[in-house]
Amino acid sequence: MQNPESSCLDSFPFSEGNYLFMLGRGLKRKLSDYEENMAGLSSAFDSSRSLPYPLKRQLVLNMCLTKLQTYKMLVEPNLHRSVLIANTVRQIQEEMRQESNQQPVNICPGITPSSHSYPGMESSGISLQLPSGISQQESSCCDLRSVEDPIENSLLIVSDDDMSSAISSILKDLDFVEDISPPTCLVPSGDDQPKFPENTGLKLEDDRQDLKGAECVFGSFEISNSTSYLKDLAIDDIFEDIDTSMYDSDFCCPPLMPPRSPSLATEEPLKTFPSCNSSSASNIQICRTDLSELDHIMEILVGS
Amino acid sequence: MAGVARAGGDGGGSSNELQWCFSQVKGAIDEDVAEADIISTVEFNYSGDLLATGDKGGRVVIFQREQESKTRPLSRGEYNVYSTFQSHEPEFDYLKSLEIEEKINKIRWLPQQNAAHFLLSTNDKTIKLWKISERDKRAEGYNLKDEDGRLRDPVRIKELRVPTLKPMDLMVEASPRRIFANAHTYHINSISVNSDYATYLSADDLRINLWHLEITNRSFNIVDIKPANMEELTEVITAAEFHPQQCNVFVYSSSKGTIRLCDMRSSALCDRHSKFFEEPEDPSSRSFFSEIISSISDVKFSHNGRYMMTRDYLSVKVWDLNMENRPVETYQVHEYLRSKLCSLYENDCIFDKFECCWNGLDSTIMTGSYNNFFRMFDRNTRRDTTLEASRESSKSRAILKPRKVCTGGKRKKDEISVDSLDFNKKILHTAWHPTENFIAVAATNNLYLFQDKIN
Fold this sequence. Notes:
A: mainly alpha, B: four-stranded antiparallel β-sheet
């Protein structure tokens, strides 16, 4: 009987390259390869009884994170599906946590949560994008594993933090900005009460309310729902509309602009936009799709 | 099962003699299915004389049953197109840079109170009340205008005449009477008309709103499960329905497989349920996908109001409203898919939302499956049937042959193996005539109508 593991392996050259999600050009081609390979793996999951449980779990986890990653790139992710997938990730996360509490060491020494905080990584935390620095670590990690587990070698080790941030980022993206004063008047119990999160994102939420009160056109022009990324920065209300994922990262980033008063909000975007762009470029690697989105926004703003 | 053959007749008799035969099929035969033609909802009206379908292109097509002809008294009337109109158009939300799909998610009829017919249709964001009325007379002989409609010169009018009504070809007009907009941030999945015939509810992923049919600029939010911090969101609303008789009671189902029954008399905001229905999980069947497959895709009260039925990915469950801790009946729709869940997750089929429906007597329930199969479960005899909606068996009055899926071992003749099932042919929407054994089954872009065989 043909070993189902080897059958799906044959069609699937295992390398980090297949899991690279290069945002921007080449994405489509990579995804279709990926999809074919995943179909092979998932039927292996279904048909094989000999796949060890941790491997099955890893496979499911990777599928979940891939889907969440795909949804994040949609303009409007499906809330129902995102919640279901996030819950599945949480469930797996909880299981892995309990296991790691029982076993002192099972994480590959080269990969620790802190080592995932390197420049250039997409702040969603899904470490499917590997710059060269990490691949060295992982290949040394792979040497430690038995060669009989090629699937396990290639399936990326995803840290607990990565899973949490994947869940948070997709769910926060689904927190649609709601109109405070819509044409139809809603009973107050239905309206969102102004939110008061515990961390310094507080200023962000307040500013959003102020901005809406001023009925600023740009205030409601939400380019991508990335305001969730700004957790530890005292961020300007102006920038809440602009995709700031390039500024976000796991390490502290100095505030880019001093906070300005909301009344200047209408004039700010055009003035501050180019300057913030250039100051950030020197600090952080810019993701390609974010740049193209910014270009698109600039075009709209200048009315071209 | 031996025994007296019960009189089939009207009303969904659960006789084991019941056989289904093809009546009609609506829709194009092309292999190439236009996305806009995919049927997204099917609903009979209260009398069963009208059958409405909505599609992804935002159109509503209403079929009307022809009166039974005197020459063939036993033949049931055919359903023919009565009215077609564009209910919703694609919209663009400029504030959020989002396209709003025109796909009709649900249609619900209002009970008929005069000559016109009213229905509610909804897409993701906006609900519309449509009036469908007939016009078969027109007035002739106006004084101030010609037959063409041109105004007559008053100077030239020498005498007055009384306009007369003349018959004309029947014209069916659909006009939007109310537009209920801007009340939902998330996608509307359900609408349900209350038994008071004056109010209705609309539910999206996180909220349920109560409307009065006459008032469009105001709605009351009666359920809100949105957490203050979206990261804490673990559950969404998947379906909601008013009780058929008690106008203060409604239920809503969740993505975690639970149902909450709420009483609007207890408080204005029904975040706290009156009853909570949940079946404890069977630990032996636990898998990574347990939660996903437990998500309820449809909830329907029985006509008598004593039971409700829920559909999750693999099963249909009947609940007694007086018993919250488990369903009274569980029917497996396609248990053979349980071993294929990973593949179905990978290709997103696991998220398909199947609906379910009761027959008029609440004795049989029906739901769809893949490969254009649909299933019926007789609650009294516990027998189940699998039938297929296909062009091959679409000859007039041809009896539908029961189908069977082979789950393992040697495949018998006429059986189909699980791996041969076409997962692109899914029957998500079915409807049962309120009083007769007549069903409508939506298979992608085709609407199949089946009736029971006249013995």
